[in-house]
Amino acid sequence: MPHCADSAPTPRIPVGLTIGSSDSSGGAGIQGDIKAMASIGCYTATAIVGVTAQNTCGVSDRFTISVPMMLAQLDTVCADIDIDAIKIGTTWSADHITAIADWLKGRSVPVVVDPVMVTAAGASLGDRRAISALRRRLLPLATIVTPNLEEARLLIGSIDATPRQAAEQLVASGVSAVIVTCGGPAGGEWYADTESSHEVSRPGHWTGAEHGAGCTHSALITGFLALGMDVRTAAETATAHTAAAVRDGLRSVGQGVHPVDALNLASRRLS
Ligand code: PXL
Predict the structure, then answer these.
(1) What is the pTM of this model?
(2) Is the pLDDT of residue 250 over 90?
């Protein structure tokens, strides 16, 4: 029986659904997504595609959830909960990507695709078939794609493209909108859609606390879309929030690339 509290109705909270993998260190992947969406008032449902054994120094092992179990999570969540935006992160295999693309058919919510292929810890996720399925099946469904520069270059097959060239080429190939993230202290990200192509400047921080920055950025875009923002504003606002999460990064956590702090935990300490 559903629990019915004897109190006034609460306002509807926007819901993001993230499809991706667990990062046991807590900074990136599904865990990072939940924190990022929570930081802007968005509830997060999840469908776990894989599990990594990982800390801030690297990935030591990984396990992939079966396609039927992944689909069971998606169907069960959506049979009950109305979803306002979907993020797709680490998807591991062509079979998972194809199943997600089929499952997405006929759904009219915004979709953010973070084509995770190279992690901040230097680990490589996904194989050639997966990259090809991503390109053919998922990118055409995306409201916005959020590769880092290395991933964008892999997607367009050009190892020395600039952020601008990579973004514009992805849009020319049929992607609706893209923001190529560059990381580091210099410059900003590059946004392109069919109407505009411009740099999204941000304060540069090279803090050693970038673990989860990419996931946080794409999850924030998903959350802002769930809140009703337009794509370009969502991408720009997420960029500013992510820069703050890197600036405030948790340098006391772990000994490698420390996690970003999307929730501004320091300000929440009780003592
Ligand atoms: O940052 C991309 C990413 C996505 N998903 C998982 C990860 C990472 C990076 O560490 O671990 C599970």
Answers:
(1) 0.94
(2) yes
